[in-house]
Specification:
Elements lengths: L5 E7 L4 H18 L6 E8 L12 E6 L7 H10 L4 E4 L5 E2 L3 H6 L6 E7 L8 E2 L19 E4 H7 L11 H12 L3 E10 L13 H15 L4 H7 L1
Amino acid sequence: MQPILFSIITPSTGRRPKALAAAVRSVRAALDFAGLPGGAVEMLVGFDGVCGERPPDLGLARFLDLPKDEDWGNGIRDILLKIAKGERILFLDDDNSLKPHALAAYMDHLDAEMVVARIDTSLAFDKPFIPEDEPGRDPIRQCNVDPLCLSLSRELVITRCGGWVHKGRYEADFLNIRLWSRRARSLRFIDDIVATYDSGRSLDARALSRRQMHLLDRLAAERRGPAPDFAVRAAV
């Protein structure tokens, strides 16, 4: 039987079926690019309190309708981690995607318990990627690293750290990342850009997150520019 090398953890509210389908396709493309057999990757998709729409699984996804959590995916991630069987753990939310070379890049660093790669954030933030290098600052800091950046050993995350232990807080992802970084016996940063953050945000127009709506509102305001002088005088 083919041993599972990568377990990919995907929480979903079920409101972004098109984005989720794109995420599944990105995993399949990364698996094929790396030359891995189909059984080497499992994608665990946990729906938060709904019977979510199943996109084509392309031979790698398992879909679970889980009890309602409504905690930014924190409880869903913990449940999925407890059933994950892969030697390595990756996190991929349903509106993100892997780059085709992602798994191949991670396979070059299987000896490191925690690998932190770069991700493309140009669709979400005013920076091309994270993490950014700033001399004198710890790269493992809030807003500079995301679960999407990580490849982790199962031994580190599940056996020694107990899974996704921080819950109930918006910054829980960072708190878990910081925990893993402190307990990792080996931590490696690589320059490869392995994923795209918010790649599926426009595929399901009615399922934008609050952060995505605020970003689009700001971009629209910037494109409109400042009000003409005559309009300001008229308003006065």
